[in-house]
Amino acid sequence: MNEPSVSLPFDPSGIVLDRRQGLTRQLYQALRARVLDGRLGSGTRLPASRDMAAILGLSRNSVVRAYDQLYAEGFIESRVGDGTYVSQLPKLSTKVSTKMSTGLSRGLSTGLSTFLLGNTGDSSSKVIHNAPIFRLETHHLPTPRSGPPRAFRVGVPAFDLFPFEVWAKLQAGFWRNPHAQSLGYGDPAGEPLLRELIAAYLRRSRGLSCTPEQIVITTGAQQAISLCAQLLLEPGVGVAVENPGYRAAGCAFGLTGATVHGVAVDSEGLDCTALAALKNCRMAYVTPSHQYPTGVVMSLARRLELLAWAERSDGWIVEDDYDGEYRYSGAPLAPLAALDRSGRVLYVGTFSKVAFPALRLGYLVLPKQLVEPFSRARALMVRHSEAGTQAVMAQFMAQGHFQRHIRRMRRAALSRRNALIAGWPVEIPGVGALPEMVAGLHVKVDVDNPERERWLVEKALEAGVELNGLGDYWLPGTVDKTAGLVLGFAAVGEAGIAEALGKLRKVWNG
């Protein structure tokens, strides 16, 4: 039910746009900033797109695109027959936390064999506040599938579209005559040029205002998550992870001796009410742009709730934006970190879903107060990342190949998604319809019970088709688990998707 209309006046003063830059992006950022800092309060009525265009001297199309992005992210809402209003949203404070784990000086926990993902069967594996608490065992660590990609492998992009010829030329150019400074010990935070280009890319494509100094290069997203765990958690401190979710993150947190709580995910993302009920919880790990593996996009209201939780609890949020480049309607959504006004979000990015996982190249965007300790810790652990890959990626980005490749990959993923939609077998007993897929490289399909889920996965593997059961993503000790199938649709082309769907239809109907 809509809130009563509060016709507060719109004040365009202070909105100054640079005509040499993208006007749609500038207007979107200006309006978003005013909503977040309260200058545009909840219930404020915005001018119609035509009127806004006249006020600011823009084309109506520029205003419509800016409004569309604000609609997609939940900042504004349309009331039928009554115009466009700022959504009802909570306010955030601006207090900045500087508290860190003292574990950096003590070193890592030595109890590694105790804290591994799995269920030891002891009394600590129980449900408290509806959140499973679990211990970890090495034989339950998730292992990504290897070998040539095939339908419907989860977690890999379209390898066949990567411009390897361009990459090979750039790499050969670097090693043919490398600078002497590139051959010694490098900056632990990463190559300065690459960090500068990543910061520019995030500002332009994500609306994430950050400086190169806030970026630390890592060997993939998993190392970034592990650094967050090792520096910000202590034994016994609570950390919340999405359930179902990315179990390797839970492993990284558990290895520090932290108490890992699985928190449910609903249609708006992580259940912040359940999160708030956890005691001594200092960190939350989330995938808000495209929840892994359910595909839910976290609502703006839920994002603000999560940020408010971090402020109240003096906690941290680790945001894993593993496939944020892939959105099929409008621009990619601004990350949670772009809403952070108090220095509590650590943003994890990766090149694995745009290039290929074997590249082992990722990055962290850190609150400013964490940059030095993270760089120092990385210097102690691995000294610095391999120089050649960083230098080649920097040239790949600087010469425009990266942006062109992203556009190509997004078009291909959309086409492959459509091929999956067109050929999905709708007549299989106990298997739901494909949900709407607005983002990402995989989809979760509902199944009526876990036994059927296991049977479907087994039959698919017998036919040479890879599927993941939703059971692979639940934490041990979880009660009331739902069943489903998780399918990646980017690994092979449209013909391969059609062939795989034909095999599934045959074995599942047999």
Automatic annotation (TrEMBL):
**Gene Ontology MF terms in the entry:** DNA binding; DNA-binding transcription factor activity; pyridoxal phosphate binding
Q: Gene3D superfamilies per the record?
A: Type I PLP-dependent aspartate aminotransferase-like (Major domain), Winged helix-like DNA-binding domain superfamily/Winged helix DNA-binding domain
Residue span, HTH gntR-type domain: 21-89
Question: Entry's InterPro entries?
Answer: Aminotransferase_I/II_large, HTH_trans_reg/aminotransferase, PyrdxlP-dep_Trfase, PyrdxlP-dep_Trfase_major, Tscrpt_reg_HTH_GntR, WH-like_DNA-bd_sf, WH_DNA-bd_sf
- Per the record, the domain of life is Bacteria
Arranged from A to Z, the UniProt key words for this protein are:
DNA-binding, Pyridoxal phosphate, Transcription, Transcription regulation
Per the record, the similarity remark reads: In the C-terminal section; belongs to the class-I pyridoxal-phosphate-dependent aminotransferase family.
Q: What is this protein called?
A: GntR family transcriptional regulator
